[in-house]
Design goal:
Blueprint: H1 2-6, E1 10-15, H2 27-37, E2 41-45, H3 52-62, E3 67-68, E4 70-72, H4 82-90, E5 95-97, H5 104-112, E6 117-118, E7 121-122, H6 140-151, E8 155-157, H7 163-176, E9 179-183, H8 194-202, E10 206-210, H9 211-216, H10 222-232, E11 237-240, H11 250-263, H12 268-275, H13 277-283
Helix pairs in contact: 2-3, 4-6, 6-7, 10-11
Protein name: Cytosolic protein
InterPro entries: DUF6282, Metal_Hydrolase
Pfam families: DUF6282
């Protein structure tokens, strides 16, 4: 069953070394595992640096176009920085992630919990929090970033912004015909109801259900993922891992997650499409 799920699959959310914390694998090890298992692609994410250049080096060394990269708009790349986004897109980035640690939604929660760092990255001060909206919609910088994503046929991912901000970002993406991916909509930091997800999907957004969110969010189970997958339809859903933590290698983790979602009641067809057809269309392969 593992090989069956993974043949032609794509994981759009994996963390690797080098990173600010220990990771399960580096880029070459992930690439080799993915190729051996029959995956079509993996998108490598870093919270602190663009991943486009380093995945290209691995692909070149292996002679296979298996890894893809992107950029996350935290403080280490200048925040909501259109210049950094355009550079990454020109170099082939598939996904532009809005702030994670440096999003006000995440940073405020971290500070309230007394956390000074998240996955090795400094939690910003309140004055440094990154805002994607301004009360009347998305900010000028975010508008420019969305325009760039649309121009390069890439994907804007919502990172760790709040549900209210997600609504504004999806509306802006819809208006500009940019593809929007809602990162781990059941995750403790960005939790959305299925009804909210249905509304976002109707506006063209794609939901990304991650194995790591199941592990780290109280009340978030594979049953909830299975229900969402069936209600939204697989054309609006992808299954991913968000793995790379020590002890959580992504390739076997994706197969295990798919099996768990299927066992929880999602149809085999829906699971398979959310692993293959929908992510293939999402990142333009």
């Amino acid at each position: 069953m593992t090989a069956d799920w993974l043949e032609g699959a794509i994981d759009v959310h994996v963390h690797t070394a080098p990173a600010m914390v220990d990771r399960a694998q580096d880029d070459p090890a992930l690439a080799r595992d993915a190729l051996e298992a029959g995956l079509d692609a993996v998108v490598v994410k870093s919270h602190v640096v663009p991943t486009v250049g380093r995945v290209d080096a691995v692909n070149s060394a292996l002679g296979e176009q298996i890894l893809h990269g992107g950029i996350t708009l935290n403080g280490s790349v200048g925040g909501l920085n259109p210049e950094a986004v355009e550079t990454a897109l020109e170099l082939g980035a598939k996904i532009v992630w809005l702030p994670t640690t440096w999003a006000r939604n995440h940073a405020a929660r971290a500070r309230a919990a007394g956390e000074a760092v998240f996955v090795g990255q400094r939690v910003p001060t309140e004055a440094e929090d990154l805002e994607v909206t301004n009360g009347s919609g998305v900010t000028t910088a975010v508008q420019r970033i969305i325009d760039l994503v649309a121009e390069y046929d890439a994907v804007l991912a919502t990172g760790h912004i709040s549900p209210t901000e997600i609504e504004a970002v999806v509306d802006a993406c819809t208006e500009r015909e940019a593809t929007c991916l809602i990162n781990h909509p059941f995750f403790r930091i960005t939790d959305l109801s299925i009804e909210q997800q249905l509304s976002l999907a109707e506006r063209g957004a794609v939901m990304e259900y991650c194995a790591y969110a199941v592990e780290s969010t109280p009340g978030h189970t594979v049953d909830r993922v299975a229900e969402a997958l069936e209600r939204l339809g697989s054309s609006h859903c992808v299954l991913a891992t968000d793995y790379g933590q020590v002890g959580n290698p992504a390739v076997p983790g994706l197969a295990e997650f798919a099996t768990a979602v299927s066992d929880a009641g999602a149809s085999e067809t829906a699971v398979r499409r959310s692993l293959t057809d929908t992510p293939t269309h999402l990142i333009g392969l």
